[in-house]
Amino acid sequence: MSSLGNAALRPGLIILDMSNDDWAEISYNKDDVIGNILQLAQSDFFHLCIESKKSVPKLKALSKGPKLVDALQKINGLQHVSKKMESAVQDSSLLETLQKSGITHVCICGISTDTSVLNTAKDLVANGFHIFVVMDATASKEGTTAHETGLQAISSQLGADVVVSVDDLLGDDEDAAAATQLNEESQRKDTTISPEAPKKPLSEMTDAERAEEMRRRDAEKLAARKKKFDAARFAHIEKANAKAQEQEEVFKKRIEEKRIPGAKYTPTSTATPVDTGKKVQPPCDKRKGWKLIYKKKEPPVVSIEPSKPLPPLAGKNERPDNVRQAVTPGWAAVDKKNERPHTYVHSSNLNCKGLAHSAPSPVNPTGQKFIPHDEPSYKKVGYGASGGSKPQMDGVSVLSKISGLQGNDPAKKLQGPRSMAMAKVKESKSESFDAQGNLIRTITRHITDPDGKKRTETEIIEIPKKN
After folding, report:
1. Boundaries of each Isochorismatase-like domain copy (predicted)?
2. Which terminus of the chain has a smaller tally of CB atoms within 10 A, N or C?
């Protein structure tokens, strides 16, 4: 926005949607908002005050809801402009009213911050006006969150210096004196360009000249306030940059102290080091991983000692892999003298008698054949025995038991086929139509009697045609 330190600039005030119906939907800071709007409207700062509200049908306009709130009805010289859209600029006479009055800077207040105030501000900027949105003289029907969201949208889209407060606009006596001094200095610098007539004291001015002079001073006060805001904003940026530079210097200093590779190393001791012929490793951080970095920086160690000759092949305790070894007799531990031929017969062949045994049977030291002292177990226990140690004859008890069981086996009774209690019937059906259209159904039954005789029965059923 351009500077307001010029008497030709004329500020105006727009109050949006402050009807009883819309005001009833506000649930926070109602007294502060209505008081700030009244303070702005009653000050001599603005050349024009416009109240813009939604257009309603004629019958509804007679009720109290669409009318201006009671606290703002006592404002003198307030002009009313109806609007049909969210923006007070679209489809209304607001632009024409502002241009006729010569308004260049517009201050916006009222409701709602996130809808009507935002859209009106954007349209006024698009039409060449310089605007301010008074944050403590606006509110939103959706609550404080929507109000803050609307102010953030205005700041991001139209500029951070657009959103101001009532104190920023009206200021105090010190700001007014500073604005007057600033205006006098600027006028002294520009006397060669645009000389002005000497100012009259307020006591010698007419009412119209006195009012114009007061509005001019208010404009200068607003310009001084804006300049103060800009200086504070740039000072904050410079302070942030200085803080970042200071942090960077501290970081560089810490890097040098911790001996990170690539940083400049400054020894802490001033004593002259003694050359002992050994490589001295500078002190480094004991954290894990730094030693690996220092090892990478060191050059590889080259040994200058003469290499020893390799031992001869015979002196090694191993045989080389690429030399063929001689095969000694008997290396496979096989007795070639007593070896027997192996019969290559598959185990599934009935003529296979198994492998030939090459090892002799065990013998005792006297040269006699080894005979076990214990009798085999199958001679001790017979069929049905309890496992006692009394010897029995081979197969006597088993054969006698089998013959006894076979002799006492009862003879089986052979019987013929079971007789049937009822005849067995198999039935088949067939249907056909005669020349008159009657249905003829033929049923054939094949019957087997209980005594085994077979016979056939045929049944014919005539079903007349339906008329």
Report:
1. 53-163
2. C
